[in-house]
């Protein structure tokens, strides 16, 4: 097990280094001087130019420049924004919680809705029903996320006027950040606003969260259905049925935990598409997260924002992907047996 963790740590370091190399190379392709692209100071004074040159070793060879670049980025120094003139790290701390909140709620919707549907679908052997489930999940997986967002916003936000279609909360409310999740923070601020701020934040997140959950929801339904069908045909399930155990008890205690293992594994594979979908959803609903901030930086040619946003999103995907792989190996009895058998 120790060697497995060491290999995964080496994979994380190697992948992160490749990502940093790509970012470092792209930085020198920006149509501005390296000092401006790295620091975000559009018109540096002679003293500022000297500091930037020393910090990023711009007068040295390319290897020294890359080492200085990595040291600055890993220390949290991403420069300042060309448009707002605020430190990139400070802006990241503002927009990251909103993206995490949206992603967590969308993931919960996908799991809470998708797993029961997948389990029920696995017990329905009617051919027409199976074809409808497969067609529906394939359609939901294939439809462009921005089109789904626009349609939901048009139907429920504009035509019915049930839900807001942009922003995170009404500007009338000033919620003090505590956890970073506005839905929770607005609930904590109930002494000041009652429950109105909480309901308003909840209404704002429904449409973007539902839109973002479509992709993982369809995948969870399909994998849960397939995994449950495979698990229910195993010998130990038949033995449990022969002992007279109730069907619900067999599903919850024996079948479902084993069927969820491939679902959990698939979550790591979906992180990349999920992140790209999240960016489109944030732009579609003006959700103030990393994706909306990053796309705004691209439109405004804010090169430090582009670097900071891509760096954080890519590093999170790499880290979470490897973390899910490690947890899957620890949870999966077969993989766990193989790992411990090697030691």
TrEMBL record:
<keyword id="KW-0812">Transmembrane</keyword>
<dbReference type="InterPro" id="IPR000515">
    <property type="entry name" value="MetI-like"/>
</dbReference>
<dbReference type="GO" id="GO:0071916">
    <property type="term" value="F:dipeptide transmembrane transporter activity"/>
</dbReference>
<feature type="transmembrane region" description="Helical">
    <location>
        <begin position="205"/>
        <end position="224"/>
    </location>
</feature>
<feature type="transmembrane region" description="Helical">
    <location>
        <begin position="274"/>
        <end position="294"/>
    </location>
</feature>
<dbReference type="Pfam" id="PF00528">
    <property type="entry name" value="BPD_transp_1"/>
</dbReference>
<keyword id="KW-0472">Membrane</keyword>
<comment type="similarity">
    <text>Belongs to the binding-protein-dependent transport system permease family. OppBC subfamily.</text>
</comment>
<feature type="transmembrane region" description="Helical">
    <location>
        <begin position="102"/>
        <end position="120"/>
    </location>
</feature>
<dbReference type="GO" id="GO:0005886">
    <property type="term" value="C:plasma membrane"/>
</dbReference>
<keyword id="KW-0813">Transport</keyword>
<keyword id="KW-1003">Cell membrane</keyword>
<feature type="domain" description="ABC transmembrane type-1">
    <location>
        <begin position="96"/>
        <end position="328"/>
    </location>
</feature>
<feature type="transmembrane region" description="Helical">
    <location>
        <begin position="132"/>
        <end position="156"/>
    </location>
</feature>
<feature type="transmembrane region" description="Helical">
    <location>
        <begin position="9"/>
        <end position="30"/>
    </location>
</feature>
<feature type="transmembrane region" description="Helical">
    <location>
        <begin position="306"/>
        <end position="327"/>
    </location>
</feature>
<keyword id="KW-1133">Transmembrane helix</keyword>
<protein>
    <submittedName>
        <fullName>ABC transporter permease</fullName>
    </submittedName>
</protein>
<dbReference type="InterPro" id="IPR035906">
    <property type="entry name" value="MetI-like_sf"/>
</dbReference>
């Amino acid at each position: 097990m120790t060697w497995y963790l060491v290999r995964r740590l080496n994979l994380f370091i190697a992948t992160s280094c490749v990502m940093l190399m790509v970012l470092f190379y792209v930085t020198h392709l920006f149509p501005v001087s390296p000092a401006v692209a790295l620091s975000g100071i559009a018109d540096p004074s002679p003293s500022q130019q000297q500091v930037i040159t020393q910090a990023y070793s711009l007068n040295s060879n390319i290897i020294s420049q890359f080492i200085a670049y990595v040291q600055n980025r890993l220390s949290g120094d991403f420069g300042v924004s060309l448009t707002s003139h605020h430190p990139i790290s400070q802006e990241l701390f503002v927009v990251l919680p909103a993206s995490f909140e949206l992603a967590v709620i969308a993931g919960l919707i996908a799991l809470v809705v998708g797993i029961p549907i997948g389990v029920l679908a696995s017990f329905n052997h009617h051919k027409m029903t199976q074809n409808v489930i497969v067609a529906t999940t394939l359609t939901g997986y294939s439809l462009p996320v921005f089109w789904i967002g626009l349609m939901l916003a048009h139907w429920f936000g504009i035509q019915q006027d049930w839900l807001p279609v942009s922003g995170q909360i009404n500007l009338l409310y000033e919620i003090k950040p505590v956890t970073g999740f506005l839905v929770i923070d607005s609930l904590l601020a109930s002494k000041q606003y009652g429950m109105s701020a909480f309901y308003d934040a909840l209404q704002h997140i429904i449409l973007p969260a539902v839109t973002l959950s479509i992709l993982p929801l369809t995948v969870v339904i399909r994998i849960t259905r397939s995994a449950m069908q495979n698990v229910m045909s195993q010998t130990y399930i038949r033995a449990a049925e022969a002992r007279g155990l109730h069907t619900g008890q067999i599903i919850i205690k024996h079948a479902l935990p084993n069927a969820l293992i491939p679902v959990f594994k698939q979550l790591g594979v979906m992180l990349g598409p999920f992140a790209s979908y999240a960016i489109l959803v944030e732009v579609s609903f003006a959700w103030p997260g990393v994706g909306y901030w990053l796309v705004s930086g691209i439109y405004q040619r804010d090169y430090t924002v582009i670097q900071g946003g891509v760096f954080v999103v890519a590093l999170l995907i790499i880290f979470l992907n490897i973390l899910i792989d490690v947890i899957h190996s620890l949870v999966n009895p077969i993989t766990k047996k193989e790992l411990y058998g090697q030691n």
